Protein: Heme chaperone HemW
Organism: Roseateles subflavus
Amino acid sequence: MSHPDRLVELMRPGTLSLPALPPLSLYVHLPWCLRKCPYCDFNSHEWRSDAGGASLPVDTARAYLAALRADLEAALPLIWGRPVVSIFIGGGTPSLFAPEQIAELISDIRARLPLEAGCEITLEANPGTFEKDRFRGFREAGVTRLSIGVQSFDDAKLKRLGRVHDGAQSRAAVAEAAEVFETFNIDLMYALPDQTLGELDQDLSQALAFRPPHLSVYHLTIEPNTRFAVEPPPVPDADLASDMLDLITARTGAMGLERYEVSAYARAGHRCTHNLNYWQFGDYLGIGAGAHSKLSFPHRVLRQVRWREPAAYQREALAGRAVSNEHEVKRAELPFEFMLNALRLKDGVALQQYLERTGLPPSSIARAMAQGREKGLLRADPARIAATERGFDFLSDLQELFLAA
Ligand SMILES: C[S@@+](CC[C@H](N)C(=O)[O-])C[C@H]1O[C@@H](n2cnc3c(N)ncnc32)[C@H](O)[C@@H]1O
Ligand code: SF4
């Protein structure tokens, strides 16, 4: 279908009525890693470098950047004129790209999309000697926020997780990020194989010693189709994992980091704009291999996914066909989709935001809201949709109330 026909189709009347379009973010997926971690189910592909270096060959990077440009250009009619509030360059391991390549990517974007003043531009980086030496270059390329995939500072735990870096490299990477960036994030995981409360406490002490403005701490999950699913490691039971979460919340709180989302902790003024936009059911265009998009139109919400394999993605993107699947979110599915995101936020969202972003009337959730309040899972405030403390502890039970009947 030609572009004008496609747009006419997306703009035609439908059962939703959105009074305004939400903020728009851009996600860029860079799909390569030095080694695939045994717990990881993200779209990441091992880069086998015969030369043993930590850089992607220039030709590979150049070809991928060309595919991203073609992808973005083909997507422009769907987001015409809308300013971008945040960019997230994620992976994979984006820090395998050289600073000049990241600079090229950011100027390719700037030349095609209007960025909101002060647009947050996050890049995911892994610890490692090569990567660390690039942090200054990333900042000069226009990156405003670095997110470092530390996972743990403990050599033995990192080995169990199949990571290519050790504790000393984790510390060196965070120290460099703290010096170079005004705001940065550390990714940690907990409930690691054979982890004790004391070991987690050590990891937290090391992370907090750098006074990070933002910390993400994820419960290690054993995902299907990973090596850990085939050979499951012994991980802490539910009681210990719950004590671990209490420890994380207490120790971060004592350092002035507020738990504002299930896994995210931030000092005032350092919450992640990009992730907040996801949780508030904002729009995002995702470009790159396997990237997901959610785009709103006056009468519909569209979801897209791009070709997953890097080679197929690059071939198809250059031919103007980066999208492998798309569908309109059904009216009956919107309440649950909205709540899957919004209820992860400690303070939830305003009811008004639900009405604006789904284009649905209050009656679409009236019954579920009443049930949630009766069960003590939702706060009583009629103008907000927010979990109580109990609701936050039983989040999936609360979210399921909003499933289509
Ligand atoms: C997809 S990774 C990309 C960042 C970078 N490549 C890295 O691994 O450090 C983003 C984050 O997701 C988290 N993550 C990945 N797999 C996970 C799993 N199975 N359980 C919990 N967290 C996971 C890790 O904390 C990781 O930093
Ligand atoms: S480095 Fe990150 S993205 Fe790559 S395989 Fe490991 S967890 Fe997945």
The first helix runs from residue 3 to 11. The mean pLDDT is 96.
